[in-house]
TrEMBL record:
This is Bifunctional acyl-ACP--phospholipid O-acyltransferase/long-chain-fatty-acid--ACP ligase. Residues 8-112 form the AMP-dependent synthetase/ligase domain. It holds the Pfam family AMP-binding. Signal peptide: none annotated. Gene3D superfamilies: N-terminal domain of ligase-like. InterPro entries: AMP-dep_synth/lig_dom, ANL_N_sf. GO terms for cellular component: membrane. GO terms for molecular function: acyltransferase activity; ATP binding; long-chain fatty acid-CoA ligase activity. Keywords: Acyltransferase, ATP-binding, Ligase, Nucleotide-binding, Transferase.
Length: 116
C-alpha cells in the first residue's frame, strides 16, 4: 500500500510519546503514520499554512503538540523552521522574532505568559 508517497502500512506505529501523567504516571501513546499525517493536515487547514510560512519553533519535541506543529508540519510543507535551544530565554526569542519575522509561533499558555 502506498500512503503519502511511501510504501508501507499507515496504521503502523511511527512514534511513541508519553503523556504528562496528570492522572498518575505518564502513559506511552503510540501514534501511527496516519495519525501524524491527519494531525498535520488538520492543523495546516486550520492555520491555512503554505510553504511560504516561517515558523518559530519553541515547544519541546517530546510532546505531541510540539513535535506535530513545530517540527513535522513545517517539514511536511517545506516551510522555514527557526529554533532556539532555550525557549524560556524570552528576551532572545523576542530578538529572533524581530529579526526573522516568523509568520507562526504556536505555544501553550505557560509559554505565552513569559513573552508578554
Amino acid at each position: 500500500m502506498t500512503y503519502c508517497g511511501v510504501d508501507g502500512d499507515p496504521e503502523k506505529t511511527a512514534v511513541i510519546l508519553f503523556t504528562s501523567g496528570t492522572e498518575k504516571d505518564p502513559k506511552a501513546v503510540e501514534l501511527s503514520h496516519k495519525n501524524i499525517l491527519s494531525n498535520i493536515e488538520g492543523f495546516s487547514q486550520l492555520a491555512k499554512l503554505t510553504e511560504k510560512d516561517i515558523i518559530m519553533s519553541i515547544l519541546p519535541y517530546f510532546h505531541v503538540f510540539g513535535i506535530t506543529v513545530n517540527l513535522w508540519t513545517p517539514l511536511y510543507h517545506g516551510m522555514t523552521l527557526i529554533t532556539y535551544p532555550t525557549p524560556l530565554d524570552y528576551q532572545k526569542i523576542c530578538q529572533i522574532i524581530k529579526e526573522e519575522k516568523p509568520t507562526l509561533m504556536a505555544a501553550t499558555p505557560s509559554f505565552w505568559w513569559g513573552y508578554l
